[in-house]
Amino acid sequence: MNWQRVNTVFEKEWLELRQNRSLLATLIIPLVMFLIIPLVTAFVLPLLLGDALTADPDIEDVVALLMEAFPAFANLSALEQFQVYMLRQFLALFLLSPIIGSMGIATYSIIGEKTTRSLEALLASPIRTDQLLRAKSLAAAIPPLLITWFMFLLFAAIVFGLGGINVFIYTMDSAAWGMMLLLTPLVALLGLGLGVIVSSRANDPRTAQQIGSLVILPIVALVVGQSAGIFLLGLPLVIIAAVILLLIDLALLAIGVSLFNRESILTKWK
Amino acid sequence: MIDTENLTRTFQNHTAVDHLTFSVAAGELFALLGPNGAGKTTTTRMLACLIAPSSGNAKVVGRDIRTDQDTIRSRIGILTETPGLYEKLTAQQNLIFFAKLYSVPNPAEQVEKYLKLLELWDERDKAVGGFSKGMKQKMAIARALLHEPDLLFLDEPTSGLDPSASKTVRDFLADLKARGRTIFLTTHNLDEAERLADKIGVLKHRLLAVDTPANLRRRLFGQVVQVEMVNGDDDLAVWANTLTGVSHAEWHLNTLTVTVEDATVVTPRLVGALVTAGAQILSVTQNSGSLEDVYLQLVGETSP
Description:
The complex is a heterodimer of chains A (270) and B (304).
Chain A: H1 3-19, H2 21-49, H3 57-69, H4 78-91, H5 96-115, H6 119-123, H7 129-171, H8 174-199, H9 205-212, H10 217-227, H11 235-259, H12 262-267
Helix pairs in contact in A: 1-7, 2-4, 2-5, 2-7, 4-7, 4-10, 5-7, 5-8, 5-9, 7-8, 8-9, 8-11
Chain B: E1 2-11, E2 14-20, E3 23-24, E4 29-33, H1 40-47, E5 55-60, E6 63-64, H2 69-75, E7 76-79, H3 91-101, H4 107-117, H5 133-145, E8 151-155, H6 163-178, E9 182-187, H7 190-196, E10 199-204, E11 206-211, H8 213-221, E12 223-229, H9 234-240, E13 246-252, E14 255-260, H10 263-276, E15 281-287, H11 291-301
Parallel strand pairs in B: 4-9, 4-10, 7-8, 8-9
Antiparallel strand pairs in B: 1-2, 1-3, 1-5, 5-6, 10-11, 12-14, 12-15, 13-14
């Protein structure tokens, strides 16, 4: 494997990404929202609304689930329990960013090359298609992953700073870290695989993203299901989700690799 | 430098290129002429190892296009149908990227050399999205040359350019040819092919003819000798038609027009016989059909 060529394409992709402000904005703005919304909901709303918030029956259902999972959770104050409830609801939203980000970058990158007709010159160079796909995959997956992890660490630090040790322990438990370390790379790969497949057919990045946006529905279902008290996101659920995602990713990447060869790109891609 | 043998490419039920056999020697500029959809780009793509042939084979820079694709790609340069540049990157960033992909030893120096050669050095820090068509085409030519390839493929290099930009590109190609580069050019610009090419192939799915421009004209139309005289009449044409080596003769407006197989043999005999017969000759000129005539005859013959 000639990593020099992979690095060269990766550097070029990174250079183009830095100059694409709208794409950068779609990467960063959702994450800033996912950071601000839970923090405001957990730490600012109680100051404004007082006890009315903690008496909500939906919250009681989730608190009951948390007590079942962590008996010591009962020792927390009502405010702390509310804060943990709120913060945990939004954790799964951090999964949206790598999926949207990697798919966005992959589709802009591949469809961009299709519309400017630059792929043929690239394919005529000595780079092999597996090297090209690897470089584009790394360039599409790494920036959203790094930004997501950075924002998540910032989120953890703020939770610790504003909520104290009790809120931090029950919010940032093994499920939260497992989700960050296991699920975020896998959802980034999911977005990437879908991006490559959709890009082979679509000629407009927005069309590709609209088709691909359907994939965020399971994550939204995860957030809704948890906030409704249907289940609690624990480490076993994270591991099961990781295994399922891994299988889906492998299938998608196999399809992506089969589509991403010189012959197909030049003669079949529309 | 290029040797093809029955190179064929089909797409589903359509044969784009049918049993193509020709060769291009080192230092030669070979022009492949043909109408739109004749298979020129498909041929270029097969030879540049971008798509595989359905049957037949070819050697490019001495390597097999089926088995030595990586080596071939590293030793050829290609100017694709469209410049295909990264519009948000600057001229320098675009070329440095490709120089690194081709593992050019000193990318910055090589990029500077070609940007200066193509008079784009002053524009090096500007995004190529703002460049004119001609400038983009020059960028694409620079990109194809950065790694000093043994063989250069140029697919319609002046297509869509204004006359001034076309001339700049053509002059640059003539300069490359003079420096001994082997060039494979596809075009439907007959004038360009005639001015630049050592050898021309006329393609319409099949290779209809391949030869030097002069030989193509001679083969298809023979050569025409025109003798302008003070005196004479239709009988001269009747007489000329009886001469050996003359395929056709006619008299019109004091000029005897004779189509011959080999002007170097027939012209002295013809002129000698006319003078002996008392003809008062004003001028003798020799010409043959234009490349356009050759092309239209060949392509027209195969039209549906």
